[in-house]
Design a protein that fits this description.
This protein has 296 residues and is α/β, with parallel strands linked by helices. The protein is built from 12 helices and 10 strands. The chain is globular, with a radius of gyration of 19 Å.
Length: 296
């Protein structure tokens, strides 16, 4: 396995491309327009510069990584010779199903088709393909070059061979793969999202402010960042989408998204990506300012 195609050049997609390229794989990064791809390459370059500054790589390693990445706007060209395709498009079921149906027509029957979905059923995604046994989930964590975990999600039809191949491949990326079964939210988000949702309810009900809630979880529970800051970094729209999948999949009211989260997403306050969520973000960096209306 040498040729990797990554669909989507956003935060997760460019991180996945960066990681595979750094380990010597040939990466085809595909998105709908050139400007998105140019931003992705600039982000990867900036992240490589940080690794260089910290001594994790040298200049030769940086240049080699960039040379291993080619960009495309045509999915047919980008995926034609892929041994593995990793879809990292937006967390939208219809978009993912459409992409996998296309990939089933474009790719070799031997190619493994993986989704970086954080909650959508791998079994459902596989159902639109010609070879559902070759479909699997590879849920990377953000930031991909740094975080060790890969949730490897086995769909109902995923074969032992494909599962074992992805487990071993993840180890070659210096990751720790964990095999899980295909249920809404898998493991990571089935546990994480209710915690974030409860933190939002705690704010919504006036129990405490943003700073207070995050400080309790950081200092009291040893979390590296509080749940509200983490929600901003994930994207409040993504959090809402995952909670909707959990609520629909289990039919349990405990997964119902907090009305405050729904209102914030409706108002376009999506967190870091929009410049404002539970925190405000200053231009050019990730410094935090508490949003006035939530302050105590």
């Amino acid at each position: 396995m040498k040729n990797i195609t990554v669909i989507g050049s956003g935060t997760m997609g460019n991180g996945i491309a960066h990681t595979f390229a750094q380990f010597g794989f040939n990466v085809s990064l595909v998105d709908v327009n050139e400007s998105a791809l140019n931003r992705a390459i600039q982000t990867i370059t900036n992240n490589l510069d940080r690794q260089l500054k910290k001594g994790f790589i040298d200049e030769q390693g940086k240049q080699a990584t960039l040379k291993h990445i080619n960009t495309y706007t045509d999915l047919k060209i980008a995926a034609a010779n892929a041994d593995l395709v990793i879809e990292a498009a937006t967390e939208n079921s219809e978009i993912k199903l459409g992409l996998f149906k296309q990939l089933s027509e474009i790719c070799s029957q031997k190619a493994i088709l993986a989704s970086n979905t954080s909650s959508i059923s791998i079994t459902k995604i596989a159902s639109v393909t010609k070879n559902p046994g070759n479909v699997i989930g590879m849920h990377f964590m953000n930031p991909v070059p740094v975080m060790k975990l890969v949730e490897v999600i086995r769909g109902y039809s995923t074969t032992d061979e494909v599962t074992n191949t992805i487990m071993e491949l993840s180890k070659k990326l210096d990751k720790v793969p964990v095999k899980v079964n295909d249920y809404p939210g898998f493991v990571a988000n089935r546990i994480l999202m209710p915690m974030i949702n409860e933190a939002i309810y705690t704010l919504h009900e006036g129990v405490a402010g943003v700073y207070e809630i995050d400080t309790v979880m950081k200092l009291g529970m040893a979390h590296p960042m509080g749940p509200l800051q983490l929600a901003d970094f994930i994207g409040l729209d993504v959090c809402l989408a995952i909670l909707n999948v959990l609520h629909s999949g289990f039919g349990n009211p405990k997964y119902a998204p907090c009305p405050l989260l729904v209102n914030m997403v409706t108002a376009g306050q999506l967190g870091l990506k929009s410049g404002s969520g539970f925190y405000k973000y200053t231009a050019g960096n990730k410094d935090l300012i508490i949003v006035d209306k939530f302050s105590k």
